[in-house]
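Take one record.
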Amino acid sequence: MKDNWFLDGILGVLYLTLGLIVVVIGYRFYMKWAGKGRKSDAIYFKPDPLKTRLIIGKFESYVELEEPANVKVYLADLNGVEKYVIWEKNLKKGLTPITFDSTQYPDGEYFYTLISDDMKSEKKIKLQNQK
């Protein structure tokens, strides 16, 4: 009989590839079933994106929570050090408005920071209330 080593080699590679695909898909299904491999969406919060970087006077944004959490909102300097706490509250699930009067804080550049037990979100802003 004629040796068909080339065809045997290709079939071997195909079987190996198919086996690896089955193992990876099985592992992903198991991890999803077991609830491992990623955090629950319920612990994440989504701050409403700030439309503008320049803040003058009163400012309002929103936080949407998937489950109740303690949320702190503060202004941090450009090194990330907390300077002024705007508020800290235990919030319920859902959409919550955040309002603050920027005239109560010195003009300058800050990080507008929202933080909970598991998440932190910040955006660089500039307060400009003096002319």
User: Anything to note?
Assistant: The first strand starts at residue 45 and ends at 47.
